[in-house]
Amino acid sequence: REGLCIFAAANPVEPMRTDLYQGHDYYLMDELLTDEQKLVRDTARAWVKKEVSPIIEDAAEQAKFPVHLLKGLAEIGAFGPYIPAEYGGAGLDQISYGLIMQELERCDSGLRSTASVQSSLVMYPIYKYGNEEQRRKYLPKLASGEWMGCFGLTEPDYGSNPGGMITNFRDMGDHYLLNGAKMWISNAPFAQVAVVWAKNEEGRIHGLIVERGMEGFSTPTMHGKWSLRASDTGERIFDHVKVPKENLLPGKSGLGAPLGCLDSARYGISWGAIGVALDCYDVALR
After folding, report:
1. I want to staple 102 with a disulfide (CB 3.0 to 4.6 A). Which of 39, 85, 247, 275 is the partner?
2. Is the CB of residue 146 less than 8 Å from the CB of residue 134?
């Protein structure tokens, strides 16, 4: 901090330039990034500045996610940036994923949350735990933003204890029968695809892909949030939902499967926290 104060005293702040979304590289992070990583960051930064910054305050006031941004988010690679190109992703590295999340949350936490859920909690489990047929069916449409997804682990009575979940499915011979409920689910009100974690008859946790339109599946919107207001949040209710057997994620079961998704999401969230700090500093400096 002392060194930063000396630097600031010797370098008085210039008048604000409204054409730039400033980056203050006091930690010389840029020299650690490749040209491609800087291009990814700067592309996301320019898009956010042009398309999101002018409208995000109004969206937060109205507590409404600006769905018209989905196409742009897909175009800058915010949906599954580390997913291989053969499945519609950008094929980028994890640092590039983090930098995109940094720039999104530098503008709004709800915006970053929407992209984090799509990438780490929907596309990641399908890519990591799904089979080839599932990857080719779902990932390209999720990467393009044609389909949006949501993730169901948290329950009304077991928020911080996912192992206590009561959402369950039974083998009915030609399909699974899913019952239960999930709470505080980002993207739920408008998502076409849901990755749902539930226990089978032996109590083992598995992931199921549930699609909007399946009978008995509903996603009521939650209202009255005080934060992440520009992110749509809802419940997910499963009332005797018939899920095709081919929609079971076969690659991993047990609580470690959804927790692995959360590891990926938390990586992006940590970059997003840096973005928040960058914006707070930039606003204070100006």
Report:
1. 275
2. no
